[in-house]
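Example (one chain per record):
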Amino acid sequence: DGGGRRGVRGVGAGGVGHGSGGGGGHGSESGVYMDMNGFEVGGSGWSPVLEPSRGLDGGGANSDPPHNSFPSAQGPRWVGGGQQEAPPVPPQTSSSSSSSQLAEDANFERVLREAAAAEVASQRTCKELEAIEQDETSRRSYKRKLMNPEEKAKQSRDRNREHAKATRLRKKAYVNKLAQLVTDLSAQKEKQKQERVLAEKRAVERLEVRRNVVHTFMKYRVDGESDRNKWGVILDENTFSMTLPITPYRSFNRSEIVSNSRVLTGIDQLVGDIHSLKMCVQSIGRRSEEWRQAHQKGAVILSEYIMENDEMLMQGDIMMARWTFATKNAMEHGAKCECIQYGMLRASFNSLNKIVMVEFMFDVMGFMQQLQRAQGPSNEMAIVPNTLEMATCPTGDARVITKVAPGFPITHVNASWTELCGYTQSEAEGRTLGMLQGPETDQKQIRKLMKEVHKGRASSMTVTNYKKDGRPFRNLVHVYPLSSDSSNDVTHMLGVLHEISEGMFKMSHESNELVMAPVGMAEDINYFDEGQATQTTG
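Predicted structure:
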């Protein structure tokens, strides 16, 4: 804690010092110090901060001049006779500057003292710990020296036993920890496996249920199912929608067209589309005599949807499936060929496995060409009119157009209808179709037709009508809703009559068997008697 000899610095309570005679650290008598301005001052442990009143000579009788000391640039120098030469007088400063300088010097001295004290305490602590350890080691060594060989051996055995016991305990704890870890990991893995198996099982069950739902949907569609309760079991009534291409060979409302597709919402519109599809199927080959005879006997054309489970794929709540639509006996009913249609569907399900949305994709023009080939050589395309303008185009079918108003008054008949029924345009205009009814007209079939007509659906029925001269004839009636050219609202109804052989009717009538072959649900035409039209409609 001293500066040593010949200018070695030291840190101590007196400040920073250098010189001979034991120098400044703890205020040795011959130390030389340097103040904050670089002046060398000293003697007898003097500090310019702690003892400013002692002056610069600070030495006294015991102060010896240092040998071979080097004078500072500005501080005092030793001269002959052991006397100090006074340092240059620093420039005079104001009292406030001197006070500030003294405060800074005091703070500097305090920091140095605290640093020195901390260093001494740290060294003392380390030394104390080393001393304690050495004492303990010495104590053990001394105690062991006092033991005889047997006691030493016993102490060694005891120590080894303790070490072995501690080792065994550590190993046991480690093994137990590993065993617990393995048990936890195995349990977690088994739980994950069970959850995965359960999830896979649920996914398989959900897939099977949704496949059955789609199969049921397609079966109801091809069978012409109109029961809303049955549809409500597999469809979400509040959000259901169906999208399919525009089908000119079938009846539909123009309001369904959205972005070059048909979009149907709700079960009611779905049932209407099903009726339209069924009427389309039953009309295949309608221009042939075999078709007329088959319908006179009550036979119907059968069709089916074919879907393979392997081609029904699920991703989340979306199912993609490939389907095939085909007629089964159209050629037996006079068609020139069977009609087959290939397509895809995309169905979306809710959490209750009910269909929320279904979209059909298929080749429209390809199926229209098949329908054209099935009906044989003809100059007419298999197009069903959906507007008033299309319904008045020339055609070989017997057509009658009525208004959608109480009584359904006739507004237009074409030449084929006039030839079939015997009434001219002027005779039929303004009257109702009740003028075609007679004793053999089945009012039950008419009421059934009218029920569907008021719902705005395409419909059909087989009924007995009478010509102007009173002769009865059997005919298959197709009824289609028509929109005006300026709006999508249904304003008129189109009735298309297909006569069934009069001779076949007479044979059936004579045997007291009235042959009726309903091919669909009725849609929109008034067949009530003229005198009853207003009362019944009301």
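Caption: Residues 1-83, 503-538 have pLDDT under 50 and may be disordered.
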